[in-house]
Amino acid sequence: MAIGHEKLDVYxxxxxxxxxxxxxxxTLNGIFRTxxxxxxxxxxxxxxxxxxxxxxxxxxxxxxxxxxxxxxxxECAAIQDILVIGKAxxxxxxxxxxxxxxxxxxxxxxxxxxxxxxxxxMADHGNYGVDFDFDHDFDGDS
Length: 142
Known about the structure:
With 142 residues, the chain is mostly helical. It has helices spanning 9-25, 33-54, 59-85, 91-112.
């Protein structure tokens, strides 16, 4: 028997992400301690806020928790950038996980009733042919 939030694809995806973060943080010590602690907190915030938001009956409350979860997903992407420049995380592995984070952010925006849009041209950041609007037509933006 699954509880309501456990039925959500975004929740299951966020739990998989947290499991990956748990694996990765075991190698982060010393100068990466602060990033490690923040990454653990932000990654866990995603499924926790999804669960809490899904339990709310008032739309404004649901939206607020889904927006917090979305913000935590974007924060995790920024933490991954920090770890990449510090050579504690590989670029390719980070890029793969950022696709998942972007997917979570889109799903959470839909659950919260808001549109999600990229504010920057992803080609400037080396998207390597990934179609971030997920209509799979490869717009030629890369």
